[in-house]
Amino acid sequence: MSGALYMTEASPPARSVLMLLDILGIKNMELREINPVLREQDSPELKKKNPMRTVPMLDEGDFSLADSHAIVLYLLEKYGRPEHQQLYPPDARVRATIHNRMFFDCGILFPRLRAIMAPTYGGRLTQMTKYMIINIVDAYEMLEMYLNESKYIAADHMTIADISVLTTVSSLNGLHAVDENRFPRLKQWLTTMNEKDFAKKINVPGCKLHVDGLIMLMEFNMSNKASKL
Ligand SMILES: N[C@@H](CCC(=O)N[C@@H](CS)C(=O)NCC(=O)O)C(=O)O
C-alpha cells in the first residue's frame, strides 16, 4: 500500500502529485477528496498531520508530508525506476536548477495565484485587480527568461520542475492568457507540456475545473455584492 493522498483535482499542487503518480505508474495510492474551499483540511485530525492546512498532503499512517514539491521529490526517490532518472538527474548543478525552479513555483509563482484564489474563495474578490494581472505578467516574464536558457524549465529535457510549474502556469493562463507575441517560448512550452498524456489526463481537466470555479465564484461574489447595495 502506497498510502493516501488528500487532494482535489482542481488544486494545482495536487495535480502535480497526481501527474507524478501517473508517470510512475503508482495505482494503489488511495485518493481522498478534500474540498479546500469548504476548508475540509482544517479538521483536527488533518491539522495535526499538516499544520499548514493545505492540499495536497500525503499520509502513510506513521508518516505524513505536506507541500507538493516535497511530496513529488519523496515519491520520486521512493518509487522512481531507472527510466525516470531524467526527471531528476543526479548531476548536482541540474538538481540545483530543478530545486531553484521548484522553489520559484512555491515561493513566487503559486503565491501570485493564491493571492487571487484566497479572496475569491473568501467571498471578497469580484474580478482580478490590475495589480494581480501585473504580477501574473511579471511571472510570465521570469518564465520566458528561464525558457531562453533551456528548452524546458530547468534543463533541455523535461524534469519534475516542469510538472510543478505546469500546474500553476496552466491556472494562471486560464485567468490571464499568456501573450504569444510577448512570451513565445512560454506559450510553446505550455502547449508542449499540456499535450503529454499525463497532462491531458490530469492537468487539462483539473485546470478547467479550477479556472471555471474561480470565474464562477467571482461572478457570484459580484452579484452578491450588487444585491447588498
Ligand atoms: N506550497 C503548497 C501550496 C498548497 C496550497 O496552498 N494548496 C491550496 C489548494 S490549491 C490550499 O490548500 N489552500 C488552503 C490554504 O492555503 O489555507 C504545495 O505546493 O502543496
What would you say this structure looks like, in words?
The protein has 229 residues and is of the alpha+beta class. The protein has two domains: 4-84, Glutaredoxin, CATH 3.40.30; 86-228, Glutathione S-transferase Yfyf (Class Pi), Chain A, domain 2 (Up-down Bundle), CATH 1.20.1050. 61% of the residues lie in helices and 6% in strands. The chain contains eight helices and four strands, in the order βαβαββαααααα. The protein has helices at residues 12-24, 44-49, 68-79, 92-121, 130-149, 160-175, 184-194, 197-228; strands at 4-7, 30-33, 57-59, 64-66. A four-stranded mixed beta sheet has the order 2-1-3-4, covered by helices on one side. Strand 3 and strand 4 form a beta hairpin. Helix 1 packs parallel to helix 3. The longest helix is centred in the last third of the chain and has 32 residues, at 197-228. The mean pLDDT is 97. Bound molecules: glutathione.
What's the architecture of the largest domain, going by CATH?
A: Up-down Bundle
Helix/strand/pairing class, anyone? alpha+beta
Number of helices: 8
Detail the poorly predicted runs: none
CATH topology of the largest domain: Glutathione S-transferase Yfyf (Class Pi), Chain A, domain 2
On the 0 to 100 scale, the average pLDDT is 97
Helix residue percentage: 55-70%
Distance between the ends: 55 Å
CATH class of the largest domain: Mainly Alpha
Bound molecules: glutathione
Strand order in the sheet with the most strands: 2-1-3-4
Characterize the main sheet: 4 strands, mixed
How many individual β-strands?
4
